[in-house]
Amino acid sequence: MTETAKTARRARLLEAASQVGKQVTSILNLEELLPQTVDIICEAYDFYYAGVFLIDESGRRAVLRAGHGEAGKAMLAAAYKLEIGSHSMIGWAIDHRKARIALDVDADAEHFRNPYLPKTRSEMALPLVVGDKVLGAVTVQSEQERAFSDEDILTLQTMADQLAVAINNALLMRDLEHANAELLRAKTYEALTAATTQAIHWIGNKALPMTTAIERIRQDAPSGKIDPEDVDLLSESVRLILDVKENLLGPIREPKMRPAMADDLIRAAALQTGSAGKLNILVSPATPLIYADSAQVIRALGGLLKNALEAHAKHIQASIAPSGKEMVSITIEDDGDGIANDLKDKIWAVFFSTRPGHTGLGLPAAMLVANQHQGSIALTSIPRKGTSVEILLPAATRPESGLISSGKKTILLLDDSDPWADFAAQTLTAAGHTVLREMGTIPDLVLVDEFQQIPLADLLEKLAAAGLKEKTVLLSAAPSAERMNQLTQKGFRRVALKPYTQSEFHTLE
Question: Can you give the CATH number for the domain in which 302 is found?
Fold first, then answer.
């Protein structure tokens, strides 16, 4: 190459470096920046091909984000990607965070023969690194062997360093815009909830007395003068109104925090929603109690289980395990329909639902509950594969108080055979009481779990027939005004929070 040609080439390189330098300081849109950069490199250096790869979210693959010419268009259309650390120049450069140059590709073991670029004879792969973070790599290819001079390598590495800074800035800006959008969305949902709260509260207050009126109509109306279907329709409408009210207002009430068994709350939510038959619960050893409002957590879990049922799940898995030293993880997984990718940004919106006729309050209510407990919620979903939702809630750290017995009693405990029932029987027995699990002997006290497999109405009818109304305490992890109203009508006036510690059992005696 003559001195004049060298001077002209050097001028082109400086001009190319200047153009790239201007772009990286002014363009924050990667879809615009990366294609322009590879075109400048090829035109200034007269190279065969240039492309930019960025690491995907898994951290295992480098995905082509910009490519020069028709070959670049074809590879982008094919979603071209390379494994990091694989036998490719790009994979090697990213894995080692070093440039790799093959002046003769046939003699380089790491060169990958790309069918889209059959004329490549020399290649250079330059990592895109900012601080300790590697973002991807740039590939530059030529039809000539030994095409890269020391000057080429120096200027191209400088361009790659500038490009890495620009890409990092663009990614930071994207994350900032996403965070701002999430904040705006959250504030919008908050405003929507606040605006509807007063109206829903008023409707709920009007609807609650209607449940009592419906029951009186059923009992008192002369036979044949009222259509039972009309009463059922009215009853269902009232139930829906109360459900909407509870899902909106429940999570924003002041929580009543106390230790609780997460697996027992899941069972209660499953019995409420009719999902118990499809549910399997796994609890990791040494999982502590959660510190939470049991009613709010049941409401949140119930919404997730309802979503699984409505997604036609055949199996639902609930997994409970410690998460760090201060949190407990509750994960609900199903094999249902999953959520379409274009809807995932909308599912946290109040009243948004993918199914006609549904309120769309399950996930927003669960998010409110998690946030109010200083926890978090995350969702992953694959269309036609299923959905997984993880809620993190604080672990109970308060020391257990000893049970102080006020005297030996015979206590009838009516519940399913589950971990809570075992805990209750052991606790009461340790305090000197005699615990019965079946009716027969007349007890001093009857403890009835609200949520169990046997219909509560059947149990209460048997207790009433045995004259045990006054001795019965209904234990509820999620007491509601509607439920207490119904029980009072049946003559059962004692309702208490379901105990999960020894000291809470003392309040029942």
Answer: 3.30.565.10
Taking the C-alpha atoms of residue 309 and residue 178, their distance in angstroms, rounded to an integer, is 31
Residue position matching structure tokens 């094919």: 78
Cα–Cα–Cα angle for 76, 81, 85, nearest 5°? 155
- What is the total count of domains within the chain? 4
| Residue 192 host element (H or E) | helix 150-220
Residues 31 and 122 in one domain: yes
Q: Is residue 442 part of a domain?
A: yes
Residue 22 lies in a domain: yes
Residues 297, 379, single domain; the answer is: yes
**17-53 as b/e: b if 16+ CB within 10 A:** bebbeebbeebbebeebbbebbbbbbebbebbbbbbb
In this structure, are 49 and 115 located in the same domain?
Answer: yes
Residue 94 main-chain phi, psi, to 5 deg: -70, -45
For 340, the domain range is 257-394
Tell me how far apart the alpha carbons of residues 447 and 411 are, in angstroms, rounded to a whole number: 7
Residue 50 contacts by C-beta under 8 Å, 6 or more apart in sequence?
A: 37, 38, 39, 41, 42, 67, 68, 138, 139, 140, 141
* Same-domain check for residues 155 and 304: no
Spell out where 39-132 has E strands.
Answer: 49-55, 61-67, 81-83, 100-102, 122-130
- pLDDT digits 0-9 by tens, 336-384: 999 888 777 777 665 555 655 554 456 878 888 888 898 999 999 999 9
Closest to 391 in 3D by CA, of 420, 356, 362: 362
Please report the pLDDT score of residue 492 as a whole number: 79
CA distance 263 to 270: 10
